[in-house]
Amino acid sequence: MKKLSKRMAALSTKIEDRIYAPLEALSIIKENANAKFDETIEAHIRLGIDPKYTDQQLRTTVALPHGTGQSIKIAVITSGENVSKAKAAGADLFGEEDLVESINKGNMDFDLLIATPDMMPKVAKLGRVLGPRGLMPNPKAGTVTNDIANAIKEFKAGKLEFRADKAGIVHVRFGKASFTKEALFDNLKTLQESIDKNKPSGAKGKYWKTFYVTSTMGPSVQLDINAVQDYQPEG
Predict the structure, then answer these.
(1) What does the alpha-carbon distance between residue 2 and residue 202 come to, in Å, rounded to a whole number?
(2) What is the 3-state secondary structure (H, E, C) of 186-234?
(3) Is the predicted pLDDT of residue 166 greater than 80, yes or no?
(4) Residue 198 forms part of a structural domain
(5) Mind listing the GO biological process terms from this record (predicted)?
(6) d(Cα 103, Cα 58) in Å, to the nearest integer?
(7) In this predicted structure, what is the pLDDT of residue 10?
(8) What is the residue range of 58's domain?
(9) How many CB atoms lie within 10 A of CB 177?
(10) Which among 70, 4, 15 is positioned nearest to 37, based on CA atoms?
(11) Do residues 64 and 164 share a domain?
(12) In whole angstroms, what is the distance from residue 55 CA to residue 224 CA?
């Protein structure tokens, strides 16, 4: 069993073994995010689904109202005049067969890959290198599209893709420690609504199992999912 560092052990003593109200949990996470850099705030949500069944898989996108606080590198595989459109829209990497060949050789210096439908037969051949990294473009994720400029704009602004892993757990980075707790909660509420809206048709029994939030270098805090779901903004 891995031994906790003195710092982590000290931070863990501040957290009680109970489920916290959302803003209280986020306040603790922010207070504990005292590393020498702006720590990323993450959500780890266990859902009552078994993704080995196709009707219990969850994969979608969400546009967080306050963004993620992270800049991402976007690659675009397209053809013809769309290559120049991708460049003009702010893509970090762009190309046709040349980019396909580069990726196939292991050049993966990007966080998100967008492709136009006409290039998907060529992109599909990259499954061996893209699949394990979760980078294969997908229509459900908004990464297979003819509207390249808008897709780049949305993802650069904080739209993100998320999915449930093989254990039915969703891992999402939804902000930075420098965000206010209110901004973090707004993002978290939007994430919760997206997960509920996109509930797989085959999900049975209790859908939300556990909901934890944490920072890059800090311990996790369990959050009251019912309080997030029931929250209604004033006015």
Answers:
(1) 37
(2) HHHHHHHHHHHHCCCCCCCCCCEEEEEEEECCCCCEEECHHHHHHCCCC
(3) yes
(4) yes
(5) regulation of translation; translation
(6) 27
(7) 60
(8) 19-68+159-230
(9) 22
(10) 70
(11) yes
(12) 27
Residue 21's DSSP bridge partners are: none
Half-sphere exposure of 24 (CA within 13 A, CB side): 12
The answer to whether 221 and 30 have CB atoms below 8 angstroms apart is no
CA 66, CA 4: separation in Å to the nearest integer? 33
Calculate the alpha carbon distances from 85 to 74, 105, 136 in Å: 13, 25, 21
- Looking at the fold, whether 50 and 78 belong to one and the same domain comes out as no
Instruction: Output the six-digit token pair for 34.
Output: 């005292």
Could you give the CA distance from residue 152 to residue 75 in angstroms, rounded to a whole number?
A: 9
Residues 6 or more apart whose Cβ sits within 8 Å of residue 32: 11, 14, 215, 218, 219
pLDDT score of 168: 97
What are the backbone angles phi and psi of residue 27, rounded to the nearest 5°?
Answer: -65, -45
- Fill in the amino acid letter for 174: F
- The 10s digit of each residue's pLDDT in 178-228 is 999 999 999 999 999 999 999 999 999 999 999 999 999 888 999 999 999
Q: Which of 137, 156, 175 corresponds to the end of one domain? A: 156
Calpha distance 69→60 (Å, rounded)? 20
Same domain, 131 and 201: no
User: How far is it, in rounded angstroms, from Cα 209 to Cα 229?
Assistant: 14
Q: Is residue 14 in a domain?
A: no
DSSP state letter for 161: E
Does residue 82 fall inside a structural domain?
yes
